[in-house]
Design goal:
With 549 residues, the chain is an alpha+beta fold. The protein is built from 22 helices and 13 strands. The strands form four sheets. Strands 1, 2, 3, 4 and 6 form a five-stranded antiparallel β-sheet that branches. Strands 5-10-9-7 form a four-stranded mixed β-sheet, covered by helices on one side. A two-stranded antiparallel ribbon has the order 8-11. A hairpin with a 5-residue loop joins strand 9 and strand 10. Helix 9 packs antiparallel against helix 10 and helix 13 runs parallel beside helix 19.
Length: 549
């Protein structure tokens, strides 16, 4: 792991971010040569900050590329120019050997490739940092694709995540401005996302759930999962023949109705969001195939989002607030979602929200661009330090991907117009008696639990007050920082006094003839001076390392 730390530090210094290494106290991990090189004039230093950061993520490998892709969605946290640059990160990687493919399949499925498949193409169809895909044929004649995980990638990712957690905590502790980007929470999100992605059985379950949700659809096809040929590192799916969603030229040449395709994809996504509460968060052209009969097939269900009924209700309340221009309701919805803490100035947020809404008030839906509206709203939230929940972030990503695909296929597509009937119907349904009853029941249950526990809690508070144990705890970040610095200073002072005491004691001992002797000097005195020297050097090193003398 120390070697990996060294690689990370070297790459940061290469692209002109060595000052961050020093600020978080890891400068000692870099060798003396690399510390000198960071002062040299480099071509990389002439690049913009977003480009240099993207290149750092590319050089550090799969886990950091996934981090960049996650940050490209978190426009509520990172500036738009960084998010746009991170969206260019490609998850490409060289293929690995067929011998390793055979070994992984045997370990996962318990039989060699030749016993499981009638044929198996050695050359992969596609390669990525997590795995690669091969075409094959089962013994029963079914054409399939087999996704095989890259050897050792799980261990690499887990090690990188451990380092990321350490670095994120150091950033939070040593660089106050980094706290705005909530680095530890970002690593939490990345960990959940990437660990789910390397469990191929989870992707299989996601695929099956989509197949169930669209079993009655005549427009959308979901590939079949072959569970007898699937494990945590191997996923076998139905092979689908079709045209990639981005090949407008081929679709035009073969006479497909592009408008119908765009409507099918957009309509299916709105169904996923408003009806199923389970949506594909990455419907870009590469994950969409147009089959021979015009049916649309979705691929790659590794990145999906979940919306509970409660979250959907809050989402609809947010849409209602935007339609009505109710900034107070909008703020309350954000608070219910957990996006507002003590750092958010709600008065400023309301003003910014009202200004944002005034730009679009009264304009026809056909003249609105959903992606622009979403990006502007996210910028309002980022400016006011509002935290957007991860599932809503995925929803934003999914919406932008669907609109982007739709505009490639049919430039006249307007997602905002398509959303209107779904939103109106969902809002109308929220006033149905059964839904009102469900909300009332949930609230009554919550209040019931509160009232049941209230007498006991009040009794405990009164007992503590009567016994003199009741206290009020007030904390602030500045107070914590001040206390930490006082503790550090007092610890150094105490340590210095101990070193001084050892030196004085050693001096007195050397004036005696206490045995044993070394070169005519008491050995205990020499040992004391040596110990004081080691402690002193360690203290000096730490003072210079932190930059605070």
């Amino acid at each position: 792991m120390l070697k990996r730390y060294g690689q990370i530090i070297e790459v940061l210094q290469k692209y002109g971010f060595g000052y961050i290494v020093d600020q978080i106290g890891l400068g000692s991990f870099g060798d003396f040569t690399s510390r000198l090189k960071k002062q040299e004039k480099r071509d990389e230093h002439n690049l913009s900050g977003p480009v240099r950061t993207r290149r750092i993520l590319e050089e550090l490998g799969p886990t950091y590329i996934k981090l960049g892709q996650l940050l490209s969605m978190r426009r509520d946290l990172v500036p738009l120019e960084y998010a746009a640059e991170f969206s260019k990160l490609q998850d490409d990687a060289p293929s690995f050997g067929f011998e390793e493919v055979e070994l992984i399949i045997r370990e996962e499925l318990g039989l060699p490739v030749e016993d499981l498949f009638e044929s198996f193409e050695k050359k992969p169809l596609a390669c990525a940092s997590i795995g690669q895909v091969h075409r094959a044929k089962l013994k029963n004649g079914d054409d399939v694709v087999v996704k095989v995980q890259r050897p050792g990638i799980k261990e690499v990712i887990e090690s990188d995540l451990d380092i990321m957690y350490s670095l994120s905590r150091l950033l939070t502790e040593h660089i106050p401005e980094a706290r705005l980007y909530r680095p530890v929470e970002l690593v939490d999100e990345l960990s959940r996302s990437i660990l789910a992605e390397i469990d191929y059985s989870q992707e299989g379950w996601n695929t099956d759930r989509f197949a169930e949700n669209f079993k009655d659809s005549e427009q959308i096809h979901i590939p079949k999962v072959y569970w007898d040929y699937t494990g945590t590192r191997v996923l076998t799916l139905e092979y689908i023949e079709g045209i990639k969603g981005g090949r407008v030229d081929l679709l035009e040449k073969q006479g497909f109705d592009r408008s119908a395709i765009a409507l099918a994809v957009a309509g299916s996504f709105l169904k996923q969001v408003f009806e199923d509460g389970f949506f594909h968060a990455d419907l870009h052209p590469g994950n969409i195939l147009i089959m021979e009969d015009g049916i649309v097939a979705f691929l790659d269900f590794g990145m999906v989002g979940h919306l509970s009924s409660e979250t959907r209700d809050m989402f609809l309340n947010g849409m209602t607030a935007m339609v009505k221009g109710d900034s107070s309701l909008f703020v309350e919805v954000l608070r219910d979602m957990g996006g507002i803490d003590s750092h958010v100035d709600t008065k400023v947020l309301k003003v910014d929200f009202d200004y944002f809404r005034s730009k679009y008030y009264g304009r026809a839906l056909k003249n609105l661009d959903a992606s622009v509206i979403i990006e502007e709203l996210i910028e309002v939230l980022r400016k006011n330090q509002v935290k957007v929940p991860y599932n809503i972030t995925l929803l934003v990503r999914g919406t932008l991907a669907v609109e982007g695909f739709g505009l490639i296929i049919d430039p006249d597509l307007n997602l905002a117009e398509l959303v209107e009937p779904y939103a109106k119907n969902a809002i109308k349904e929220s006033f149905y008696p059964q839904n009102i009853a469900r909300v009332l029941y949930d609230n009554i249950s919550s209040w019931s639990r509160i009232f049941q526990r209230a007498p006991t809690k009040i009794s405990h508070i009164l007992d503590n007050a009567e016994n003199g144990y009741l206290g009020i705890k007030l904390e602030s970040e500045e107070t914590k920082r001040l206390i930490s610095e006082i503790n550090t200073a007092s610890n150094r002072l105490s340590f210095s006094l101990i070193i001084s005491a050892i030196i004085v004691a050693s001096s007195l001992i050397t004036q005696t003839n206490m045995k044993p002797l070394l070169w005519g000097v008491p050995l205990l005195g020499i040992f004391g001076f040596l110990l004081a020297s080691i402690f002193g050097m360690w203290l000096i090193f730490n003072i210079f390392r932190t930059g605070r003398i």
